[in-house]
Structure formats: C-alpha cells, structure tokens
Predict the structure.
Amino acid sequence: MKNTVMIMMATYNGEHYLRKQLESIQNQTWSEWQLYIQDDGSTDGTYSILQEYADADPRIHIRRNPEKIHGSFTNFHILSNYCKTLKKCAYYCFADQDDVWFPKKLETMIIAFRGIPSDKAALVYADMALINGQGKRISESIDAQWKISGKNCWSFFWVHKVFGCNLMMNSFLFFSVPILQVEDPRIQRLSHDNLYAKFAAVLGRIIYLPEATMEYRRSGKNVTADQKYTISLGRILQRIFHLKDLARRHVKVYNHSLTTISLLRQKNLTKAQRRFLNRNQEMLQKGGWHTVRELKKQHVNWGGNVENISHELIIGLRLYIRYLDS
C-alpha cells in the first residue's frame, strides 16, 4: 500500500478539457498514483482520448459504467464501489474531467496527513483558484468567494463546502463508507463529496489547507466566482422573493445529510456520535426558529451575510420541509 494515491475520475462528454486535466495529473511531483477512470457513456471523443492516455501510461486504467443507471453522482458511486474491491492504497481522491491540478497538489495533501494515525478517519481539502469555461482565471481563491474554510462538525451537515474534486482521504475513511446500493434513488441523488465529508466529520477529522492546489472550472450556467456574497438591499429582496426556489436547492444538502445519517448508523458509533446524529436528524426534519437558534449556537455559517439570512429564513419558516426525502 505504501503511500500510493488512488485517483477516481468520472467522465462524460469531456473531450474539450480532458487532455489538460490528464496531463496535469501526470505532471504531479508525487508520482506514486493510480488513476481509475469510469466513463458514463460519452458520445463524443472522450473514450478515445482516455484510451490513448491509458495505452501510454500504465498508471491509468479506464472502464465504462457497467450499470444501466447513469448520472454524475451515480457514476462516482459505482466507481468508488469498484475501487473498494481493488488492492488498497494509502490515500484516495476524486477528480473531475475539466479541472487543472497544480503540480504539487498530491504532495501538498499527503504532507497534511503526517501525524494522523492510519486507523483514524481523516480528510483533507484545500482552497482552489477559479477559471471559466475558456480557462481564464477569474479568482485566485474560492474561499474568498464562497467561504469554504472554518467549518465545524455541525456545519458539514448543513453546509456544502467540501468539493469532491479537491479532497483527499486516507484509506480508513474510504473503506468506512460501505458499498452503496446505487439502485436506491436516494443514493443516486447523494453527492460523493457530501457523503465522505460527513463520514469524516463524525468518525474522524477534517483538515482545511488555505493553499490553492488546483484550478476549478466553472462554466455554462454555473454560478461564477465573480458573484459576491455581500449585503445589499437588492440582493436580499431578490432572495426573499424567491425563497421557495431557494428552498428546493438548499434541501438537496439536507437530503444528503439524512441519507448519510442512515448510512452512518450502520457503523459502531459511540454514544456521543449517536446523540449528534439524532440531534441533527431531528432538527433537519423539523426546522423552525428553534433550529435556527441551535445552528447559531453551533456556529453554523453558510458564507456571507446574505447567504446566512436566506438559509435561516428557509429553515425558520420550514419552507424546505415539503421537499425532504421521506
């Protein structure tokens, strides 16, 4: 096992950006890695590009999604299930097809694990620079825009700030998450980054690195980095008048939390860990202003002031409840 890193990449119609990402992985200063890529039925030249790189580099392994179920999260879950059947590595991480890794990304993250026992669950994530669809740098720090740092155990069940493309976990954490039943609709909607971050928050520890280790691409209809979460009357009113639409978006994280709580209950937990899960599940399912007060007490922070106001209104008014998974 030594210090080998297993990188898991899910692809789908990524021919425009894929070469640059693959080459950024090949150019890592840490060369002890294995890259497993699962394509989800691309209709462009993605699979031909993957085959080209796999033929030239024995560390790159490609496969097609063998299931009839498709989708970004599902593709990652099926790939993770498969990688749990392979020879163990010391560290595991995910990769998106359209980002660009800085040369010391793997090395920087591995160093962060020093001093952490191998039998303790641990996850490291870091800051990222932001680029647009054309590869132009639009921000030097995603943390400066979206406040991804400074989160505590409570926050990871209410706030989605860990990105799968820029996390690394040790072997203990990776295998703490069970083989997932991808036929379950709740699993199909469950993001892989939410899942592993919550397991790490309950079972071990999460470390944030303020150093940007990659370029994160935001393109198409995604919200770009030049959006600021600052207070303004117009922005507050805009959010207030669209609270129901926001509730549908926010509830995705809350549904992820409820699904993950059910998976965590399968573990041999301490009484304190069970109390924590019970309390979060109760609050997620009830909402209300009492929940808002408790979240403030636990220092749960979604980002800027406008973000916090809109989330607290949605929770306090229980607007998301109707969209919760049963």
